[in-house]
Amino acid sequence: MFVSGCASVLFLALAQPAPSALPKLQLDSFPPPTRAAIARPYALATAHPDDVNAVGALARALHAWEQWNAAHDTYVRAHALAPRSFEWVYLDGVVLQRLARQREAAASFEQAGRLRPDYLPARLKLADALLESGDLDASARLFEALAGEASATPAAEFGLGRIDAARGRHETAIDHFERAIALFPEFAAAHYAVAQSYRAVGRRADAQAAIARHQQYGARWPGVDDPVLTAVTALRDDGQARLQEGVRLAERGDTAGAIAAHEAALTIDPSIAQAHANLISLYAKQQNWDKAEEHYRAVVALGVNLADAHYDHGVMLGMQDKWPEAAEAYRQAIAVNPRHARAYNNLGQALERVQDVAGAADAYRHAVDNQPSFRVARFNLGRMLIARGNYAEAVRELETLTQPRDAETPRYLFALGTAYVHAGRREEGIKWATDAGALAREFGQYELAAAIDREIARLK
Amino acid sequence: MSAHVKNTHARLFFVSFVSFVSLVAAAQPGLRPRQIFIESAAATGLTFTHMNGATGKFYMPEIMGAGVALFDYDNDGDLDVFIIQGGPLEPAGARDSSAAPTSRLFRNDLTIDANGRRTMHFTDVTDRAHAGVRGYGMGVAVGDYDNDGYLDLFVTAFGSTTLLHNNRDGTFSDVTKEAGVGDTAWSTSAAFFDYDRDGYLDLFVAHYIDFTLAGNKQCADSAGSRDYCTPRAFRPVPDRLFHNDGRGHFVDVTEAAGILTAYGNGLGVAVGDYDGDGWLDVYVANDATPNQLWINQKNGTFADEGLLSGSAVSAAGNPEGSMGIASGDFDLDGDEDLFVTNIVGETSVLYVNDGHGAFEDARARVGLAAATAAFTGFGTDWIDYDNDGWPDLFVANGAVNIVETQRGQPRPYRMHDQLFRNLEGRRFEETSASAGPFFALREIGRGAAFGDIDNDGDVDIVVTNNGGPVRLLLNQGTAGNHWIGVRLEQEPANRFAIGARIGIERAGRPTLWRRVRTDGSYLSASDVRAHFGLGPSPSIDAIVVQWPDGRTERWTGVSADRFVTLRRGTGKP
């Protein structure tokens, strides 16, 4: 019996892997805010390496501070100490996915799913990890089940589409992608994927249109609430995190919130030049010129991020109708970065305000030379060429703006029509103006459309 | 003792003896399996250390590294080495001063005795060759732009580009101004190729971002430590296409050719016929912005099909790091596929061509995703390192942001390079661990050039390291497989037939296709000769050449295990 007992103990010891060691961290290598955030949980975990709460707290801190490998090692230990806890194995899967170790991530999400079968983000992430590691059958089964859950449907349809596309079944892939897009029209990845399938079945025009929408929507993705992960990212409260929060708020149009976040970043770390630089334009939006100027001077004193600082300073001055000063600010931006296309464009606008048409045309020319895809700069150049009587050259520049057809295009087409008329090619000018009017109406630009109609009537 | 017992004892003794011998063999260095690659730079006199001019201000050029070219500058039949140098970034003017380091040209003094024993030595001939380019160099392109039978050099830079004309007497002349290819935007990879089939090599130059020292930005890594910015902190600069007018001069045709309609943060350039229509196209790897696939419209213009082709971004529609390019037919189906290196956490990508310019992101399917997840890759190419007939992969790795486990150490961007064996076009198996001690070395790998440096029938590699020494990897491991090296010659134009395709036809086996090229990889230029591994059988039914102008010729009766030069007009149409 003693032998059996020993054998049982031995068997159990062999079956349960020993918890992995805690990572050894070089705390001195971290900047002070990071060191402060990690040092305490590290000390506690080191002092109590078998305490799952201490180890888990360290793992979450490392995760929040994006020390991925160390976070993974620590989550593994936490999970070994508390194998029935969902949190550690799930978060380990998230970290593994971030490290692009998809098979291991899938294994973690599978375990997590057994512990909490109802946690939607874990199910979605498992399906994704299986797809990325090439296990299409298993991934498809999961996405099919998820397609019935409202908040997960767009991502699930997208996943099913990718699987069908990978198998060459592009017609059904298109169905899935189109359903995903119908539910979440800004789903950039779905627009890209459906473009590939459209191309594969010969629908090239549809593919090109889908590519255009993909480029329009950037990286937007249908999110699913993930409170377990959110609790980790909320741990991070340093200057950089506040700066990123400020940038996100600014993108959403919440200027006041963005300012507060940026100021909070600077309270934590006054040396974050980008925070100062962003606050120039944010305060300018509120017409708080003194604060904007204060942050401009702070960036200049730091000696970095100067091109954008001078540029934003120019914008601020322009908002106050201080055009000569704005022009000088843009010139300073250009001196720092001679290829700053936006600074050249805005310099052109400032020079127009002071009636320097030649200077404005030259500035717009530089903007276009440095960034040929800068449509509004080319439009401005075209206007200056018309103003200076260079109609043929204006036509050449403005003709490049006829595609794509977006909300800016009506005025570009109208300018092109104007250039043609001035160049003596009246019928072509009327044609482009008519096109401009129709497009303006499509985009709900009724005042512009009416102005164009009046001009066409006058010409006729 | 019975006979059975005696025999059993004998067998046991034999097994024990064999086990003992194996144990001893494993302990004896001389009895270990042969290394595939032996690092031999210092031993052969190829001594060079890159200077990145790191200032502590995290200027972007400091992290980029530089390239290397393998080319036969003196036409003596072996590959010489031209290595690009960086330099000081401060104070202003330092990189152009006479005290600043320059690029270096090393002549290969390879000798092969009557027994076939090779002795290789490199001699630094930079000064006598006038090949020392000053300034903050980045990359190099190789091509005979004036059709005099000698390969010339185009050097890109954070600063002014340089065109070095090979004078055919062991020296070079800077003809940048006369040739009209001076360019001060931050240039990276470049490629000579004849896009309009007029017999003169034109020039495509990739540009990176609008970074200036004065416009430097303060960026941090994920832990808040000061680190190099992502290129997204700056704006991309359009690439350039220069048309060779045949009189030693180039004309900037960028806008006329349509190249201004799309651009990103250009780092890698590869030329190939990606849509299979017989005309050369250009693939540009852009860092953190969508890649371009410039399809030749056959009328002097190009159209960007990157996004539509599936080769511009990941399968999820996200732009990736995209630094180095390996362009070639890895699955022996006759078209040109693309392997593009990305940054850590993205995985490098294999875009498999359907033969018509549509690509599948196959990284997970072929086993490359998991193997490259922990690495930031740069220089790369398809090389059949074991001559089994299947193109394998080498990747030079090195981080661009602080490696988590090296935090607090000097130069915390070090990674080891990787070697992958191609398993008959279906999957890749990493063989780094058995390829030699070099592959355990962690450095900051950047450029890589490929070619048979010792002319022994296998492909060798030169690797540059950012702020570190150059490495020469001599291939020792072809396991008795057969090979053939092909050099093309034609006159009067495009004398090295850059852009031609060579096919080795073998009965019952797929044709092996290679393009005559020097471009691809990262900032680097490789041997213009095409190398083919043939596997265990040396038989070659025929060699087919598709010349750059579209005409085809065929040679039979060519035997393996040597270099051959095929002159246009000596084969059968």
Task: Provide tags for this entry.
heterodimer; A: 460 residues; mainly alpha; 26 helices; 75% helix; 0% strand; flat; B: 573 residues; mainly beta; four-stranded antiparallel beta sheet; 39 strands; disordered N terminus
Mean pLDDT of chain B: 93
CA radius of gyration of chain B is 24 Å
Shape of chain B: globular
Q: Label the structural class of chain A.
A: mainly alpha
Q: If strands are numbered along the chain, what order do they take across the biggest sheet of chain B?
A: 1-32-31-30
Cα shape of chain A: flat
Number of helices of chain B: 5
Please give the number of β-strands of chain B: 39
Largest sheet of chain A: none
User: How many strand segments of chain A?
Assistant: 0
| Alpha-carbon Rg of chain A, integer | 29 Å
> Termini distance of chain B?
79 Å
The stretches of 5 or more residues of chain B where confidence is low (pLDDT under 50) are 1-32
Query: Count of helices of chain A?
Result: 26
Largest interface, C-beta within 8 A: A-B, 64 and 46 residues
- Uncertain segments of chain A are 7-15
Q: Please estimate the helix content of chain B.
A: under 10%
Explain what the structure shows.
The complex is a heterodimer of chains A (460) and B (573). Chain A has 460 residues and is mostly helical. In chain A, 75% of the residues lie in helices and 0% in strands. Chain A contains 26 helices and no strands. Chain B starts with a helix and ends in a 6-residue tail after the last strand. Helices cover 7% and strands 33% of the residues of chain B. Chains A and B meet through α4, α11, α12 and α18 of A and α4 of B.
